[in-house]
Description:
The complex is a heterodimer.
Chain A: H1 2-10, H2 14-54, E1 57-60, H3 64-67, H4 77-85, E2 90-105, E3 108-117, H5 119-126, E4 132-135, E5 145-149, H6 150-155, E6 163-169, E7 175-186, H7 191-196, E8 197-201, H8 202-209, E9 217-222, H9 228-238, E10 243-246, H10 247-250, H11 252-290, H12 292-301, H13 305-341, E11 343-344, H14 349-354, E12 360-361, H15 367-393, H16 397-402
Parallel strand pairs in A: 3-8, 5-7
Antiparallel strand pairs in A: 1-9, 1-10, 2-3, 2-6, 2-9, 4-7, 5-8, 6-7, 11-12
Chain B: E1 4-15, E2 22-33, E3 37-41, H1 48-55, E4 63-68, E5 71-72, H2 78-88, E6 89-92, H3 104-114, H4 119-132, H5 148-161, E7 166-170, H6 178-195, E8 198-203, H7 206-211, E9 214-219, E10 222-227
Parallel strand pairs in B: 3-8, 3-9, 6-7, 7-8
Antiparallel strand pairs in B: 1-2, 1-4, 4-5, 9-10
Helix pairs in contact in B: 3-4, 3-5, 4-5, 5-6
Amino acid sequence: MILKIARRNIWRSKKRSLTLLLAISLGLWSGMFLIAFYNGMIEQRVNAAIQDEISHIQIHHPNFLNDHESRFIVPDAEKTIKLIKENSSVKAVAGRLILFGMIASPSGSTGIKINGIQTEAENKLTQLSSKLIDGHYFTPSKRNEIIIGQKLANKLKLNINKKTILTFQDTAGNLASAAFRIAGIFKTQNTPFDETNVFVNIEELDSLAGLKGGIHEIAVLLYSNNSLDSCLQRFKSVLPELEVKSWIEISPEIGITVSAGTQMVYIYMGIILLALTFGIINTMMMSVLERTREIGMLLALGMNKFKIFTMILWETCFLILAGCPVGMILAFITIAITHHTGIHLNNYSEVYANFGYSPVVYPNLNMDQLIKIIFMVIITALVSAIFPAQRALKIKPASAIKN
Amino acid sequence: MKQAVIDAHNLSKIYDEDSIPVVALDHAQLHLNRGEFTAIKGPSGSGKTTLLNMIGGLDHPSSGYVEINGTNITKLHGNALIDFRLNNIGFVFQSYNLIPVLTAKENIEFIMLLQKIPAKQREMRVLELLKQVGLENKGDKRPGELSGGQQQRIAVARALASKPQFILADEPTANLDSVSATNLLDMMLKLNEEENMTFVFSTHDQRVISRARRVITLEDGKIVEDTAPAKITNGINLLE
C-alpha cells in the first residue's frame, strides 16, 4: 500500500513531475553521452599511440632510454625478435634503430628522431604505408629513401623526390651526414609525432652509423591490450638482461590522460547529478510541504515514522527511476548512432591533432561505466530523498491537521 | 459500574510558555465511559480541539495526564504513541482527510494494513464497513469523486476499521449540508446504539449537540458544564 500511495502521489502534480522527469532524463542522457564522448576520444588517442607510435611493449638495452646513446643496442636482437614472435598473443614485432639528429633542407633545419626500420616488419606493426598521404612506401630497389611527416614537410618546404640531409652522431662519436630522397609523406592523428619523426631503412642507417647490425628498440604489438600484463611478465622473465616496458611506462603521459580522463568524466557526471539532486530535493520538499496536513493525518491515524520515511523515499526513487530509463534509452540511441557515424570536429581538427587526438570521435560506453552510472543514480535518489523525508518526520500531527 | 475508557486527570495545556503564555486548557478533569455519545462544545478558542488532541494522543499536555483503558498515554512517545493511536483510537476530521490517491475501499483498508491484518479479513471488514456506512457501491471511487457527506462516511468507516476503543471526531459536520449532517449523525448514533461504540465530538453544531447524550461545555480552557441535554437521551442522564 505504501508503494501504491508513493507511486500515485507522483502524478498528483503532473506538470511538476513531468518537468522533473525531463530534467532527470536530459541530465542522465547528457552525462552518459559526455562519458561516451570522452571515452571515444581517449580510446582513440590510446589506440593511435599504440598502433602508430609506441606499440604495446618495447624492449631496450637497460641504459638506452636514459641516454639514447647509439652504443646501447639490444644484444642478440634477431634471436630476441624470434623468441617474441613465438608468443601467440603477439600480432607483430619489429626492430628499430633510433638516432637523434638534424634534418636540413634549403629552407631550414630542425631536430628529429631518425627511425631506422625493418620496412616490412614495421609496416605490419604500424601500417606506416597506410598513413602516407603522398608518395610511396620504401622500394627495395632504391637506396636512401626517407619517409617524413606532413608537418615536417610543410615546415621545411619539402616535397616528394626532394633531397634532404640527415646529420647524426655515429658510434665513434663523429658527425655523419647523408642525403636522402623523400619517398613518402605520412600523416597521423598526432601532429607533434609527424613533426619529429622520420623513417629510413634500418640497413642504410646502420651502415652510416657503423652499428654493424645493431637494434635499439624492439616494438611488440599484441592482438589485445588484455594480454599486456601476462606478456609483459613473460618477456621480463625470459629477457632479464633487457628493459621490457609497457606502453604506459614508455609514455606515462598517455596513462595519465586515461586516468585523468576517467576521473574527469565521473566528476562531470557527479556535477550533473548534484544539480539534479537539488532539483529533486526542491520538488520533493514542495510536495511534502503541500501535503503537511495529509502527512499529519497519516501520523494521527497510526502510520509510524519509518513508514512515512519509506513512503517519501519511494516517491523520490520512483521519480528518479521513471526518468532514468528514458535518459538511458536516449543516451544508448545517441551513442549507438554516433559510434557508427562518428562525430566530426573538423573545425577543430588542427587543435585536436596538436594534442594527438583524432578530429573524428566515436563515442563508446562500456559496461563497467554503465554500472557505475547506475550506482551513482541510486545514490542520488537516496540522498535526494533524505531531506524531504526528514522534513516529513518533523511534522506534528496536531498542528498539521489544524492548518 | 460502567467501564472507563478515557480518564483525563487535571489536564492543562499552555502554549508559548517561554514568551507570552496562552492557557488553552486549564486543569480539565474528564471521565468518559464505554458507549458514551459525547459532544464537547464551546466558543472558538475555548480549548475543544486542544482537549480532543490530548485525549487522542496527538499533543502532550503541559501538566496532568490521560489514561486510555488504564494506559497513561502521556508517557508514550514517538512510534509507541503512534502504534497506540493506531490500535485504540479512531479519528474523524472536519475536512474528512481521506488519502486522495486511494479509493474509498483502499482508504478503509489502509488502517488495517498498518495493523497487519490478513488480506481476507481486511476484505471482509471493508465490505462490512461500507455496508454499515451505506456506501457499498462507492468503494471504488476516489475521494474526489464523492460528496462531502459521503467522504465523511468513509472517514467514519476508516475510523471504525481498526476496531478502536473510541472515536474522536473534530467538528465532523462543520463542512456538511444539513441533510448530510443529519444522515451522518443518524449513522453514528446507530453505531453507538448497536455496537456500543464510544464517540466524542468537538462541535459548534447545534444539531450534534442536541443529539448528544452528554454535553461538555468548555470556556477559556475550563470545563464549565458537563450534562445531558434535557430533551434527549430518553430521559436517562448518563452522568448519573
